[in-house]
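Chapter summary example.
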Amino acid sequence: MKEKKLISVIVYLYNNEKTILDFLSGIIKKADSLFEQFEVIIVNDASTDGSVEKIKSADFLKPFQVSVIQMSFHQGVELSMNAGLDLSSGDFVYEFDSVVIDFDDVLIEQSYRKIIEGYDIVSVSPESNDQLSSKLFYTTYNFFSKSKYKLRTDRFRILSRRAINRSFSISVTIPYRKAMYINSGLKIYTIEFKKINQEKRITEKNFFRNKTAIDSLIIYTNLAFNISVTISLLLLFCTLSIIVYTFFVYFGHDKPIEGWTTIMLLVSGGFSGFFFLSAIIIKYLSLILELVFKKKSYIQENIEKI
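The structure predicted for these 306 residues follows.
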């Protein structure tokens, strides 16, 4: 018996003409065997190859409900997937950030079975992550994170509609979905698997060169605040040292130039206080401006039905 829940499958596409049809064929075959109703939403992030043309000419897609969102220009995985989430209507939503399959497709069913047990977010993750930059980012994030759940590399995830609604209710824009999900307060489960091939994911890049990663560390962790406080304390220590040195000179045998003590105290204290306040206020004001007043986070050209 097929499941009667409406399922949405969101797929990120960017210059994947060599792999996209094999990926869609496998995913749709599995979804068709599990669900009575499902939709496939392909978000084309301004691909410059023949990916979309191959999708449009694929006969095996015709019997199914397939939509292609054309992004106006290349905007990255996060904004593109947000566009897919906005269009989705399923009770549960699969997110595929990459069209590389290094997992057994039985995990698609296992993740669904797990989410109907009462979880709101189920991630399917490899047992190990080979990329050093990813390891460094996740280690840094988890060390400073306030969530009880750990952020890690995953291949895909399935979300309940409640998880999606909760995420968008927390913030107008979602700079990093995975971080938002683990901070949503909902139940999360992770399924681990061993890779069946060693093909690298196209979407995995150096996290610390990515604006999304930096924004996530600032928004969802205490990293920025801890750095500001640490630097401020170091400057405060330097200021106190200068103050002690100033009094030592003033009460010493060699008298300084008149007014030198007052100027040194004023300059040292002023710069320390200025840095302490500006480091915190400026950064958090910029985040408030970005998250509260930026109503539309992505721009799409059109939506086509296949």
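To summarize the output: Confidence is low (pLDDT under 50) at residues 201-209.
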